[in-house]
């Protein structure tokens, strides 16, 4: 029932946003330009200097595509979780509290829109990378369902990180800078192999903010056949644990929320 209600609210929110078609098309085009330019800068550097610590351009392209799609799914299905601060500051969260649906469900379905640019570019990057890696025999067709599994678990992990960060707003209220660290900065870092970073940063991206499990850890098995299948099982376990902890943190924070009318 909750899933059906969630999908109905998502569709209603998307229909309302599609009323402004020019704004939708323009924002999609701008997002495409930004992401294309970001990846082209990385590609040009790697084409000039070759492999970086043993990672090829196509392997980095694969990592980039996986986290781009995972993030796009998270932001499509739970857009305003990332924007909880404005609800806390303006008091608009009060309106969600009186709705006959769970607060988180109501928040997740506000201002929903499908991120076509990010999903499309991620799929293109994955197609290019996997075709090249298959042609050299590095991976086989079994990598396709494993990649789908990676994207799904990755979206759950990114949602959990976003939800936990948002929930901290019940105590801090202003969380923009914290989100810059836990979401924006870590997402950018995880586009590249974690082996490029110092040990302390690798640990932070695997333990404190586990974005390394979105693409890097499972990719070690899918692309390089390292560590065995436990790499994927561990990734699924991390996604489940992260989601459970984030939900608990959210419920604790929501119970402490002071309405603007109180």
Give short descriptive properties of this protein.
262 residues; mainly alpha; elongated; ABC-2_transporter-like; transmembrane helix; transmembrane; membrane
Question: What does the secondary structure layout of this molecule look like, with pairings?
Answer:
Layout: H1 2-17, H2 21-49, H3 57-77, H4 84-90, H5 93-97, H6 103-108, H7 116-135, H8 143-167, H9 169-172, H10 176-189, H11 199-208, H12 216-224, H13 230-255
If you had to describe this structure to a student in words, what would you say it looks like?
With about 260 residues, the chain is mostly helical. The chain has one domain (about 20-255). It is built from 13 helices and no strands. It has helices at about 1-15, 20-50, 55-75, 85-90, 95, 105-110, 115-135, 145-165, 170, 175-190, 200-210, 215-225, 230-255. Helix 2 runs parallel beside helix 7, helix 3 packs across helix 8 (about 145-165) and helix 8 (about 145-165) packs antiparallel against helix 12. The longest helix has 29 residues, at about 20-50. It is elongated, with a radius of gyration of 19 Å. Keywords: Membrane, Transmembrane, Transmembrane helix. This is ABC-2 type transport system permease protein.
Order of helices and strands: HHHHHHHHHHHHH
**Which structural class should the secondary elements be placed in?**
mainly alpha
Cα radius of gyration in angstroms: 19 Å
Strand percentage lies at: under 5%
Average pLDDT for all residues: 85
Total discrete domains: 1
- Gross geometry: elongated
Question: How far is it from the N-terminal to the C-terminal residue, by CA?
Answer: 32 Å
- How many beta-strand segments? 0
The low-confidence runs, each spanning 5 or more residues with pLDDT under 50, are: none
Binned, the helix content reads over 70%
The biggest beta sheet is recorded as:
none
